[in-house]
């Protein structure tokens, strides 16, 4: 059951307080997604919204922002909706979908003790479990990853979603945190929508084996790339891409 967690700058419902505090620190304190240079009323895509902390962060900084938030895990999506209601937030369209290179249905592996790690690529989580077991006690790692469940979730191409919402003229910020499916999300954009994207920030893991392809794709679309390795684990990267004007 979701519990209310209080932070210095906001509050939210969460299934895992420890995970929520970790994500809050990343977003609100460490500012891993730098949105300081956005226009006053940006249009933002939140791919892998989880319980909504990034959307709350954007609306805190830019009250006039419009956001489309995607979260395929049913339980996380419900908590996301509760958090938007908790803060009376408007102009955030929450969709119970994942993003991919093509529309369809996939199995999502859901971790109730660590919902932000839920994924359609569970093979990577086996390696993450091994890493967690090295960094922590074996029992603690098992607790976080045990009792996994599988759900059928709907996936959609981002361009298909955007084509049904033609009122925007630019995509100021595309945030992607999708547990191994980052390249698939990017491949779901058509050229006409790529031309509207100004900034992309995503998290990826070397074990996924797609970092070079991600960076190559972003470079080919006219972005300048910066990367920074996460301080909390080797091989995790934040990739920031900005449009060359």
From TrEMBL:
InterPro entries noted in UniProt: FkbM_mtfrase, SAM-dependent_MTase, SAM-dependent_MTases_sf
Pfam families to which the protein is assigned, alphabetical: Methyltransf_21 (PF05050)
Stretches assigned to the Methyltransferase FkbM domain: 46-200
Gene3D superfamilies: Vaccinia Virus protein VP39 (3.40.50.150)
PANTHER family in the record: METHYLTRANSFERASE, FKBM FAMILY PROTEIN (PTHR34203), SLL1173 PROTEIN (PTHR34203:SF15)
Stated name of the protein: Methyltransferase FkbM domain-containing protein
Organism, as annotated: Xylaria flabelliformis
């Amino acid at each position: 059951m979701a519990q209310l967690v209080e932070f210095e700058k906001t509050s939210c419902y969460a299934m895992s307080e420890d995970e929520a505090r970790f994500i809050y620190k990343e977003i609100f304190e460490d500012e891993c997604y730098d949105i300081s240079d956005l226009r006053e009323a940006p249009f933002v895509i939140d791919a892998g919204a989880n319980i909504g902390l990034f959307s709350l962060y954007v609306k805190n900084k830019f009250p006039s922002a419009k956001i489309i938030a995607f979260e395929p895990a049913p339980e996380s999506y419900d908590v996301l909706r509760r958090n938007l209601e908790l803060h009376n937030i408007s102009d955030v369209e929450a969709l119970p979908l994942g993003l991919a290179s093509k529309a369809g249905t996939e199995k999502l592996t859901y971790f109730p003790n660590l919902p932000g790690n839920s994924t359609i690529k569970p093979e990577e989580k086996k390696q993450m479990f091994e890493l967690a077991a090295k960094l922590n006690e074996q029992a603690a790692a098992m607790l976080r990853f045990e009792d996994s469940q599988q759900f059928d979730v709907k996936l959609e191409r981002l361009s298909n979603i955007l084509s049904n919402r033609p009122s925007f003229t630019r995509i100021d910020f595309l945030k992607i945190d999708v547990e191994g499916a980052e390249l698939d999300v990017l491949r779901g954009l058509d050229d006409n929508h790529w031309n509207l994207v100004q900034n992309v920030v995503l998290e990826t893991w070397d074990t996924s084996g797609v970092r070079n392809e991600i960076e190559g794709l972003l470079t080919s679309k006219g972005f300048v790339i910066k990367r920074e390795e996460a301080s909390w684990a080797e091989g995790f990267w934040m990739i920031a891409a900005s449009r060359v004007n």
